[in-house]
Amino acid sequence: MNILTFCLLLLAAPFFSYGQQLPFQNRMLDMEARVADLLKRLTVEEKVGLMQDVSQPVDRLGIKGYNWWNEALHGVARSGQATVFPQPIGMAASFDSDAIFDVFNAVSDEARAKHHQYAAQGSYARYQGLTMWTPTINIFRDPRWGRGIETYGEDPYLTGVLGLAAVKGLQGVSKDGYDKIHACAKHFAVHSGPEWNRHSFNAANIRPRDLYETYLPAFEKLVKEGNVMEVMCAYNRFEGEPCCGSDQLLMQILREKWGFKGVVVADCGAIADFYKENAHKTHPDAITASAKAVLSGTDLDCGSSYKALIDAVKDGHIQEKDIDVSVSRLLLARFRLGEMDSPNDVPWSKISSDVIASESHDSIALEMARKSMTLLQNNNKILPLKRGGLKVAVMGPNAQDSVMQWGNYNGTPKRTITILAGIQQALGKDDELVYEQGSGLVENIIMESAYSQCFSEEGAGFAAHYWNNKERTGSMVAKQLMKTPFALCTSGATVFAPNVELTDFSASYRSTFKPDKTGEVTLQLYVNGVVSLLVDGKEVKTARTGHGARKINHTMKVQKGKQYDIQLDFAHHNGDAQLNFDLGYREVIDIQRSLARVADVDVVVFVGGISPSLEGEEMGVDFPGFKRGDRIDIELPTVQREFLAALSKVGKKVVFVNCSGSPIGLAPETERCEAILQAWYPGQAGGRAVADVLFGAYNPSGRLPVTFYRDTTQLPDFENYDMTGRTYRYLKEKPLFPFGHGLSYSRFDYGTPMVDRETFVVGDSVCLTVPIANSSTIDGDEIVQVYIKRVDDQDEGPIKSLRAVQRVHIPAGEKHEAKIWLSSKQFEFWNESNQLVDVFSGKFRVFVGGSSTAEDLRELTLQIL
């Protein structure tokens, strides 16, 4: 061997270690080169197999399968134990981007740790990957939209700032060229209900101003400033084209104008909506629909429609080189995540599984829940409650509902502190608590759950076993312990358990019921599928639904001291599978009896509102006032309203804790309740956070990220996407509680805001100084809000627009000067002449204060030359 040959072999050594190493396997090459090498080795069939959320392995090249679908809306979701933070709409009430960054940095730690746990077992199933389909940054334009609970509110600026913090917390900073996690901005675009017809709805005749000033800014911010790695296109059509096939949205705006180079993923089943009956039906079949979606920039199909791309190439609807564009983006994402390399080479793999549901993350969840608490009303300063001989009644349907606190798209926490438990823990030894539920959410019947009296071989609750066939035969694919009453539904493509398919699956749930009293017990089911209920081995109920879910109840007499074996067998039939189950003692609401039980208390804490079981994504159940997860009206449910009226009539001081992910019309409640605390869906530590505010251990600082309207009459047509009359930016009537509103136990007095100069040019910045005094005896946090309006705006522009926020902590009796830098970019508004968002020369009104309402704002004028 001559010296030249030896040197060449030495240089080529990386390619030949581990046997016959190929260039795409060589970590010494840059990732784009590795992608290019791998791409040229793939067949069309293999490329198409990589373009679906369940990406197929390429065994001959050592490429393992990968599932792109994972969720982390407010914690790692649907993948077992994880920290459950407040729902995003609650986090938005903090107006605190640093706190949201901390939340999602913790979430991405847990996601990485979970992924490597699964990978070590050779498992790469749904909800186990590194591509998290969050955040939801659609504008919460109408409080009736069920999925508004997943957003950061109604304001484009706030949504962009907080969404950006979420993305940065998730994705982290690359280490050794590897990304921590990939986030996904969704749902692009002009998407905010209704849920019931989202697969056929056409968002049309959108004013360009509304498109560029309201619906697109948060997406643009996450793309340009956050380098978000994925964007999910929406179900609906935009100006006649399905969003996942919209050249205007995906090519002209997203890729060409904004320069997005990452992956566009279709919402689950959205490509099938192109050709399905009762959906958009803009295309005749999967072949033409899939070709159109790829040519419009959609790289990944969550579904199976893209299988037709093989025939689309053969039939000439698309060329292989067009498919290569999408596959290159998908492969690059996988390389950047380290998913194509050994975990030992990826720094993020060193994150310990000890972080999952850890005490430190619980502390972050508690702090975030505290910051989300929004005090709307505090008449006669009834709050904070004074301990020491206090007798308090805790009432209402949400007082001890832990599942309500988890919101939706959630994981399972180690423990949840309910609001009832939080109040119990906060009371002193001389205080007394009376618990009386009194009212249901929407029905005049309440059920005292006896689920806690069920015990299986796996532990307290029901043991669940799953099969990916309808016959419950062969190997089980999953086991779970259902510790709480279950509400399972595949709507929104949500599986019953990890590794379980969405269709053609079955399950069996078993436990032994050991009643602690004699009486009549109701086993309560809400089912879409085939169900069989057995008690002591005898079938007592069976049903097969054909057109949606329906209620099934079985009532039986039980005796204390006896045991009853309960088995619930379920199988998917058609459509979305659904199975809700609880058992307990049902009784009709008796307001007078409940009033008698709380007759001698000093104060009633009524924990009401609504629930994620009522508002959410395309739900398969309707209740009075609700339709498929959307709301028909926004008022507090009648059954609760009547109960609060009865409490008021007998002179009870009521503190109303409202749990909801959307604004509730509470006009009568402002007259009947001394205080109103908006608690949202506050996560696993929510009960303690509520109690901390009620008893003064935490000074509330939350502010409304959405307008609370008086009632439904203040709202335009739900299906009209014109912003006229919507949100604080366009609402001319007086709302019940304005955007940005939130009370504190401190008093903050604003001085005259000042600027370092009153005129400046495009490209410069101006420093705004805001003097604030805390004239109370309590330390507190104030949220300084800056709104801007262009004086010469003749095009029916917004009344005012939030353009800066700053959280400041001010000790009791002290003064603070908040300094906020305003760049010319924060003065951008719609330019009708060039049909762009632009910075105008001219005068601008700047409003500074503690909410969006005029009474809370100080004003000054600036001019851009």
UniProtKB/TrEMBL annotation:
Record keywords, A-Z: Hydrolase, Signal
Species classification: Bacteria, Pseudomonadati, Bacteroidota, Sphingobacteriia, Sphingobacteriales
Residues of the PA14 domain: 457-599
Protein name: Glycosyl hydrolase
A Pfam family per the record: Glyco_hydro_3_C
GO molecular function, one term: hydrolase activity
Family listed: Belongs to the glycosyl hydrolase 3 family.
InterPro entries in the cross-refs: BXL, Fn3-like, GH, Glyco_hydro_3_C, Glyco_hydro_3_C_sf, Glyco_hydro_3_N, Glyco_hydro_3_N_sf, Ig-like_fold
